[in-house]
Amino acid sequence: MSTESLLISTVLLVMLATYVICGVPFGLLLGRYKGTDPRTVGSKNIGATNVFRSISYWAGGITALLDMLKGFLCTFFGVRIIAVVVGVGVEYFLPARDEMPHFAWVSAFIFLAAVFGHVFSPYLKFRGGKGIAVGFGAALGFSPLIALGLVFVWALCTFPSRYVSVGSIASAVALPFLALFIYYPVTVSFELPFILVAITVVWAHRKNLQRLKDRTELPFSFKHGNHSGSAVSAKGATEATDVNESAKAENLKTATDHKADSKESEKFRTDPHFPEKGTGLFFGSEPGLKEHIQSRMSETAAKKSSHDAEKIKQISDAFRANSQAQKGKECTECPQTDRKETHE
Fold first, then answer.
1. Which domain holds residue 338?
2. Which of 7, 64, 129, 246 would give a disulfide with 47, using CB separation of 3.0 to 4.6 Å?
3. Per-residue H/E/C for the chain
4. Does 171 have pLDDT greater than 50?
């Protein structure tokens, strides 16, 4: 076997081993150890940030540490294993600032395999984390300068904005530029893996980008366990409060209308002359409305007749009493003989 064939086959085997090792979902394992599947809480991601927020501090910290460690070990030892197998010095496979080695692409492709293993985990049906912690660890294993540049960009964007996702996306975008500026001039084979990693990591943050657009992304916080309905800014919080107040007002109005409808239904049930709900001229039952009007008119006429009769009786009684009183007065004023004759 030629040296080039041995090199290619060894690189592919190391990349495969790196992919399998970096695909181990430490966040999921630690979450299950604590009794919680990180895929069911928070952002539903197995990465260190979601584990830190949704499960516990120490679980998130250990997840980040283990993800960085697996990436570091794979690139650090992977390059050295290839150097031993091929029989040349490790410096032939590591990037250099003065003069880029011809086989520096080897370390870059191992870095690519590490990030892909974490993002497309073979143990989770090719789903996984977002590649930030493992990417930093893998970069540290073959290029501390790139790793420091990633940390600088991440901190520069995360702390002012208070969004971890902003720093992570910015670091991913900066990765190929860091590799280009630090090791310029570079070869296409060395730069291509960094471009693929940047695209993959940004794609893995597509939901974060949507939440940032909608202003519902969670800010960086040392608190965990409460993520539902959180806003990421004062404006977002105000809008959420307004929505809640509107919902409460709408619920109160609905309850009031329902209560009023219940009272109206009770009126329909207790008033025998009132047509049932859903009947009447404007509800498709004209006979029912006519019957209702006639019953009301009859009832009103009966009440009026009774009232008139009572009033007439009162007037008649008063007139009769007045006539009798007047007649008695006239009898007392006339002489005794006349009164007698009058009575006779």
1. 281-343
2. 129
3. CCHHHHHHHHHHHHHHHHHHHHCCCHHHHHHHHCCCCHHHCCCCCCCHHHHHHHCCHHHHHHHHHHHHHHHHHHHHHHHHHHHHHHCCCHHHCCCCCCCCCCCCHHHHHHHHHHHHHHHCCCCCCCCCCCCHHHHHHHHHHHCHHHHHHHHHHHHHHHHHHCCHHHHHHHHHHHHHHHHHHHCCCCCHHHHHHHHHHHHHHHHHCHHHHHHHHHCCCCCCCCCCCCCCCCCCCHHHHHHHHHHHHHHHHHHHHHHHHHHHHHHHHHHHHHCCCCCCCCCEHHHCEHHHHHHHHHHHHHHHHHHHHHHHHHHHHHHHHHHHHHHHHHHHHHHHHCCHHHHHHHHC
4. yes
